[in-house]
Amino acid sequence: MALLPLLFSSLLVASLADMTGKIGINYGREGDDLPSPYKSIQIMKSMKVGQVKLNDSNPEILTLLSGTKIHVAVTVPNEEMIRIGSNETYAEQWVRNSFIPFYPNTLIRFVLVGNGVLNSDIDSDRIALYDSLLPAMRGIKKSLNNHDIRNVKVTTTLSMDVLQTTFPPSNGTFRSGISGTVMPRMLKFLNRTKSVLFLDVYPYFAWSANPKNISIDFALLRGNITQTDPGSGLVYTDLLDQMLDSVTFAIEKIGFRNIRLAISGTGWPSAGDIDQIGANIYNAATYNRNLIRKMTLNPLPGTPKSPGVVIPTFISSLYDENHKIGPGTERHWGLLHANGTPVYEIDLTGSRNMSDYKPLPPAENNEPYKGKVWCEVAPWVNEVSLPSAVSNVCGIDNQTCAALAPGGECYEPVSVVWHANYAFSSYWSKYRSQGAICSFNGLARETTVDPSRGRCNFPSVTL
Ligand SMILES: *[C@@H]1O[C@H](CO)[C@@H](O)[C@H](O)[C@H]1NC(C)=O
Ligand SMILES: *[C@@H]1O[C@H](CO)[C@@H](O)[C@H](O)[C@H]1NC(C)=O
Ligand SMILES: *[C@@H]1O[C@H](CO)[C@@H](O)[C@H](O)[C@H]1NC(C)=O
Ligand SMILES: *[C@@H]1O[C@H](CO)[C@@H](O)[C@H](O)[C@H]1NC(C)=O
Ligand SMILES: *[C@@H]1O[C@H](CO)[C@@H](O)[C@H](O)[C@H]1NC(C)=O
Ligand SMILES: *[C@@H]1O[C@H](CO)[C@@H](O)[C@H](O)[C@H]1NC(C)=O
Ligand SMILES: *[C@@H]1O[C@H](CO)[C@@H](O)[C@H](O)[C@H]1NC(C)=O
Ligand SMILES: *[C@@H]1O[C@H](CO)[C@@H](O)[C@H](O)[C@H]1NC(C)=O
C-alpha cells in the first residue's frame, strides 16, 4: 500500500505536475528573536505558502516540514559543493545524510547546488567553484537516480549578473567569461535532465540603479506601461518579464531552447537608508501583491517570449533579518517583522481583490533625497565595539581621521562615540563613490542632522 503513492509519483517524471504555480518564500534566518522553526512553519501554513527555499538542508527544519503540503527547495552550500564536486563518494554521502532521511515525507522538489557560483563578484576561490559546479550537480543527480528518486530537480542559483547585456531583452548575452564553457555545460545538464534554472530577479535593483530611465510603474508590475523590444518585436508590460526574457535570449544564443526558469528570489524592500530610493512599504506591498497576482493568474501568463509557462517564484523573504550585512534595505526584505507580525497585508494565494486591502502609507522616497547626509554611530550600538572599528577606518589612509589627532579640530570632546561619528562620516563621504556604505558592520546609520560642533566640520555626502 505505502509503495503505491511513491510509484505513482515517479511516473510523473519531469512532468509539469511538480511545478506548482503556488507562491514560494525564502525562509532566511539571519536575525535574532525570530520565531522558532516550529512556529515559522505554523506561520507559513497559515499564510498558505506553497513552497519554501532553505539556504541549506537544515535537518530540524526538514523534519518539521514533513507531512506538510509545502514543496521544498534545499541548497548545497558552496563549500560543500566544492567537496562534493571533487569525488562522487561525497555526492552519495550528501544524498544519504541530507536528503534520504527526510524524503519523501518532506516534499523536497529542488536541490540547488551552490548559490551564486557564477556571480562576477564572488570572493571565494572562483576557479574551484566553477570547476566543481558541474561535477557536483551530476554527482547528486546520479546518486538520486541510484536511489530511484526522479521527481527532484537538481540545479543551481544564478543572479542577473551572469548577463553582460540585458537591454533590450533580445540583446541578452552571458558574460564572456562564462558563455563559452561553464554555461553551455550547465545548460546541457539542465536540458538533459529537464531541470529548471533558478535566477534571482530583482526589478528593484535594476530600477534603483537607473530610476530616471525606468518608470517605477514598470518596475512595480502595474501593467499600465508597454515597451516594445525593437529586436524581437515583443511587447513588455513590466520589468520582471524583460529581465527573465533577457536570460532566455542569452540561453538561446548559446544553442538551447525551452530551458525553464524559476525565480529563486524577488521582492521589494520596505525600508532602507536615506540614500536608497524607493524602499518603502507602499512599493513593497504593491510589488509583491502584483507579483502574486501575475504568478497565480489562470491561465498562467508566462512571459512575452515564453507565454503560458509556469515560473516557480520564491519571494524574499519571510522575515526582516537584522543580522544581514550591507545597506539598510538588506534588513527589510521581509513580509513579516522579526516578531512574526505582517509588515503589510499580503495574500499569497492571489485570490484577494486588490481593492480589499487597507490603504497603505504613501511612498515618501520615490525621488532621491535632496540634501546633505552624514554617517553616525547607531543609537543601539554597544560602545565597546567602536574603538576597533575606528582604528580600522582610520588606518585606511592618513587623511580620513587627520582631524581627530590631538590638537586637531575634531579631537575634542574626547569620546569614543564622537570620534567614531567623525571617522564614519569622513570615511563614508570619501569612499562612497567607490561603493562604501554607511554601515560599518551594523555600527552606523545615515542621518540628515549635521553632527558638526564648534570648529569641527563633519564631511558629508550630497545626494
Ligand atoms: C543558513 O542560515 C542559518 C541561519 O542564518 C545560518 O546559521 C547558516 O550558517 C546558513 N547556512 C549557510 C550555508 O549559509
Ligand atoms: C573518492 O573518495 C573515496 C572515499 O574517500 C576514495 O576511496 C576514492 O578513491 C576517491 N576517488 C577519487 C577519484 O578520488
Ligand atoms: C544590442 O547590443 C549591441 C552590443 O552590445 C549594441 O550595439 C546594440 O545597440 C544593442 N541593440 C539595441 C537595440 O540596443
Ligand atoms: C536611458 O535610455 C536610453 C534609451 O532607452 C538610452 O539610450 C540611455 O543610455 C539610457 N540611460 C541610462 C543612464 O541608462
Ligand atoms: C499607472 O498606474 C499608476 C498607479 O495607479 C499611476 O500613478 C500612473 O500614472 C499610471 N501610469 C500610466 C502611464 O498610466
Ligand atoms: C535538449 O534536449 C533535447 C531532448 O530532450 C534534445 O533533442 C536537444 O538536442 C537538446 N538540446 C541541446 C542543445 O543539447
Ligand atoms: C474587486 O472589487 C471591485 C470593487 O469592489 C469590483 O468592482 C471588482 O469587480 C472586483 N474584482 C474582482 C476580480 O472580484
Ligand atoms: C600620507 O600618505 C601619502 C600617500 O600614502 C604620503 O605621500 C604622505 O606623505 C602621507 N602624509 C603624512 C603626513 O604622513
From TrEMBL:
Record key words, sorted: Disulfide bond, Glycosidase, Hydrolase, Signal
Catalytic activity, reaction form: Hydrolysis of (1->3)-beta-D-glucosidic linkages in (1->3)-beta-D-glucans
Ranges in a coiled coil: none
InterPro entries given in the database record: GH, Glyco_hydro_17, Glyco_hydro_17_plant, X8
Family per record: Belongs to the glycosyl hydrolase 17 family.
Protein name per the record: glucan endo-1,3-beta-D-glucosidase
GO biological process: carbohydrate metabolic process
Source organism (scientific name): Hibiscus syriacus (Rose of Sharon)
UniProt-listed SUPFAM superfamilies: (Trans)glycosidases (SSF51445)
Keyword Electron transport: no
Xref: PANTHER family: GLUCAN ENDO-1,3-BETA-GLUCOSIDASE BG1-RELATED-RELATED
Signal peptide bounds: 1-17
Taxon lineage: Eukaryota, Viridiplantae, Streptophyta, Embryophyta, Tracheophyta
One example GO MF annotation: glucan endo-1,3-beta-D-glucosidase activity
EC number, as in UniProt: 3.2.1.39
X8 domain mapped to chain residues: 373-458
